[in-house]
Amino acid sequence: VLEGLLLSGYTFQKYKSDNEKITQVETLTFVGPKLKKNAKLAQTFEAVQHIVPGVFLARDLVNEPASVSTPTYLANQAKKLSEGNGLKAEVWGVNKIKAAKMNGLLAVARGSLEEPRFIKLSYKPSGKPKRKVALVGKGLTFDSGGLSLKPAKSMETMKIDMSGGATVLGTMRAIAQLKPQVQVIGYIPSSENMPSGTAQKPGDIISYRNGKTVEVLNTDAEGRLILADALICAVEEKPDVIIDLATLTGACMVALGSQVAGLFSNNEKLTDALLKCSKETGEQLWHMPLVKEYKGDIKSSIADIKNIGGGYGGAITAALFLEEFVSDVPWAHLDIAGPAFSERELSYTPRGGTGFGVRTLVQYVLSL
Asked: pTM here?
């Protein structure tokens, strides 16, 4: 009740010249026997009051225009979060990205005047961590499709393509306040995908630092290219689990609609845990298959793999592409293309960014 009430009070009116007067609840009193002595209830109330601002942060970042919410802007938000908040922020500029051989991120960013950023935000508890969790969020701040240009109508809401990164930032904000005995590291590769004379071209080959090579046949399938770099980086730090979130495919929306995210995973225990947390938070996930027989659809004749499949099962082939970069680490991929942004007002979400995934990820970390 408290969470729903707080979430439904969100507004984004920064750019309205005549701000509507929104009626908001200022005080909420819960009445009942022995409430003061109910430690679990008090703990729940406190958690909600830290989680909801994390959701609001993610919503704000998604709702900002792409001219404001650039890779540099996202990086600055990560730095602000780390100030006196128990988080450590690292922001890599172009030179460090080049030195780290993050060639997917560099390739996607080539067509834009905006420089890419690689953002790493870390939380470590005071004692020995129970687990080490890596969260990876796609931070594509605007997606024109690159040289494989999207139709104009499809670009109207492409500021939302950094929703995965926004969710990771919102989750890290809540984690820093709730202080679980779990180490959590957030990774956000961030760039724009624009057409220009310097943009990557269909037919280009990307060589990743783990040795994999990728043939780029469609520059509009760019999210997986920048996520691959972040997944490689996460694997190198030996986490117990990796969870990535991305507005990755329209195919997932065709399958599941606008309010359900697709869950792909190489680990049954992680799948079950995320589905349980999803049910508790009301953020709907649906378990989708990693069909091994479809791996042939992303085989390339001149590189190891290509960045698009054969036309059908696009959400599955995109997930199979990402799986190539997670080694044997327990991993889950959440395709949030549908629920990251709502085209209409819902019960506790206005039109716009939803902050989808923050509550489920926090619930998962707290459950460890």
From this structure: 0.96
